[in-house]
């Protein structure tokens, strides 16, 4: 089976500064892949390259049978790449319902609805549909950001540090949701994380980054290896 998402020897620069150096990784269909590393090693830059926010200096990204050269972000979203950015970036003055409906933009008119399973995963969203996004707690906003991405009917869900600043009970809810999306919906999931226990519990495969390069690739159980941990220590 072809990989749902494949990154092939990509470089990325911000001006004269090189953020990514020959990054290659593969997200297998129906699996959770985690990218780990300290702050500033290029994890978020990798996701911004995948979603088309930043242009590559070299290499390419393939999604299904398509090579994503300079495909703009909105077209990648329509192709099935759902993005949950770091910091959530919900619309604070829009209601929960309106935030979810922003996911309709790339959908056919017949698909413009919120799938019921989103409310089953995150019941708090259904009970707060009329509340403004900015009035939600950080954990509730994270659930809203994931729900909004799921409204777009993604084939691949890309998440940037979904556990950052979130209370433990909601981290567990998010973990269960991602496992459900993998196991029951067959969704391919790529997440950037620093929370090792979370990744060990839910991820299938891990990539460890340091200074803009991939230093280790393997199963999630490799997080217990000293050679892997040395790249994750502050």
UniProtKB/TrEMBL annotation:
InterPro entries: AAA+_ATPase, ABC_transporter-like_ATP-bd, ABC_transptr_urea_ATP-bd_UrtE, BCAA_Transport_ATP-bd_LivF, P-loop_NTPase. SUPFAM superfamilies: P-loop containing nucleoside triphosphate hydrolases. It comes from the Bacteria. GO terms for biological process: L-amino acid transport. Gene3D superfamilies: P-loop containing nucleotide triphosphate hydrolases. Keywords: Amino-acid transport, ATP-binding, Nucleotide-binding, Transport. Residues 5-234 form the ABC transporter domain. GO terms for molecular function: ATP binding; ATP hydrolysis activity; branched-chain amino acid transmembrane transporter activity. PANTHER family: HIGH-AFFINITY BRANCHED-CHAIN AMINO ACID TRANSPORT ATP-BINDING PROTEIN (PTHR43820:SF5), HIGH-AFFINITY BRANCHED-CHAIN AMINO ACID TRANSPORT ATP-BINDING PROTEIN LIVF (PTHR43820). Belongs to the ABC transporter superfamily. This is Urea transport system ATP-binding protein. It comes from Devosia subaequoris. The lineage of its organism: Bacteria, Pseudomonadati, Pseudomonadota, Alphaproteobacteria, Hyphomicrobiales.
């Amino acid at each position: 089976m072809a990989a749902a998402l494949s990154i092939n020897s990509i470089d990325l620069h911000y001006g004269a500064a090189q953020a990514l150096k020959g990054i290659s990784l593969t997200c297998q269909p129906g699996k959770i892949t985690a990218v780990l590393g300290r702050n500033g090693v290029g994890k978020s830059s990798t996701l911004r390259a995948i979603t088309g926010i930043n242009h590559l200096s070299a290499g390419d990204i393939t999604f299904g049978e398509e090579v994503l050269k300079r495909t703009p972000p909105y077209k990648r979203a329509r192709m099935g790449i759902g993005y949950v950015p770091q910091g959530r970036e919900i619309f604070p003055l829009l209601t929960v319902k309106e935030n979810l409906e922003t996911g309709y933009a790339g959908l056919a008119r017949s698909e413009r609805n919120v799938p019921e399973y989103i409310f089953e995963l995150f019941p708090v969203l259904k009970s707060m549909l009329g509340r403004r996004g900015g009035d939600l707690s950080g954990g509730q906003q994270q659930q809203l950001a994931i729900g909004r991405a799921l409204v777009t009917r993604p084939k691949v869900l890309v998440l940037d540090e979904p556990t950052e600043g979130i209370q433990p009970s909601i981290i567990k809810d998010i973990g269960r949701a991602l496992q459900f999306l993998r196991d029951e919906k067959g969704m391919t999931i790529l997440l950037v994380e620093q929370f090792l226990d979370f990744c060990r519990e839910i991820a299938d495969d891990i990539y460890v980054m340091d200074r803009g390069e991939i230093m280790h690739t393997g199963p999630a159980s490799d997080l217990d290896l000293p050679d892997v941990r040395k790249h994750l220590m502050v």
